[in-house]
Structure prediction request, 422 residues.
Amino acid sequence: MTDNNRPVRPQSSGQPSRFGDLNDSRPAQRGAAPAGNRAYASQRPAASPRPAQRPAAQAPRPAANPRPKAAPQGVSGGRLPRGFVPLLGVCVAIIALGLVLQGLMPGGFSLGGTQDKAERPVAAQVSEIHGEGPVRLNEIMSANGGVLVDANGATPDWIEVANIGNRPVNLQGYILAKSAKAGNVFVFPDVILQAGECAIVYADSTLQAELGEELHAPFRLSSGGDVLMLFNTADVAVDTVNIPALAENEAYVRRDRNSWAKDTRTTPGLLNTDENYQAMTSVVQSANVQLGEIVASNTQYGLDENGVAQDYVLLRNTSGADVDISGWYLSDNPQLPRLWKFPSGVVVPAGGTLLVHCSGMNRLDNPAHLHTGFRLSSEGETITLSNANGQPVDTATYDLLRTDTAYIRGSDGSWSVGTPTA
Prediction:
């Protein structure tokens, strides 16, 4: 298979069974025709009693009382109201049309053609295959709420592929797809995984498969349940998995060759071990870049490119050499240490500082004026700086910060409140 626009059609016996059609049973129920209106007969007034004998001598005869009018024909004698028959015909036609639409679209139809991701139909399951090779699906997240962010600051679904063997493996030509007949597939470029290494592919319907760049698949995953398949360079399915419904920030994690489990202890980019999880949540003590200053209610210091005072975090390089922090992370949520990602090419100069505006605007195009996707709270938060592996290298927790005051790290490592220095 040479083109990721061509359907994947594995040729060997290792190919999983294709999806079957979903046939819904839709027994039609004919509603009874509405009953006609009941007609009510009118009651005619009784005549006045007539005298038995006219008097001999009497004043001139008065005019006779007017005769009561007859009741309207529409409510007498059992007749139907005018226009009832056409109305009954319209009702019958509407009922018939409803029965036809129910048979054609039992699940209803959408106005506007959009559907929430969590409400998409669950994909049909596939026969799972667990190959013997070193390359396999390892961890999947279909409702990413900030566990992992891409270079644009977005939080798409993601797929992890791991090399569990003892030798390097070139993934070029391996394919990710949601079915054996899928047209939108992801074909790996010339990516070499060392033994024990993992590769992340974001599933956000944005195809990007260039060496040295983030990997993005041209399809998404449904948080309500989905299917994922991995094909080798011979177009043979070597690993398949039926993904269950997953809650936000919950991953489907491979435990061993044949078993998977839901877990919130995620290790994107690393093998699924307790040791790796502890490494990702423990602070690394040997980093040369650290948090130096935090201002959470700023009106005049460290102005951005537009001359606006934003809340900020100041990083310091304690070494005598420049430190490239491309792909590092900054967060104000300890549970989501990868909340915001530094773009490529960001360097903290030797013995110098780097100011990051915490404006919530998520601007990455100007290295001199970076803007995070989150803002700071003056009432107190925990700030975490993590390396490219997602391991925290420094944390700082501050309490209430008044306007134009800073939480500053001293040369001895202690923190205190003072005047901003930016």
In short: The helical segments are 84-104, 274-281. The mean pLDDT is 79.
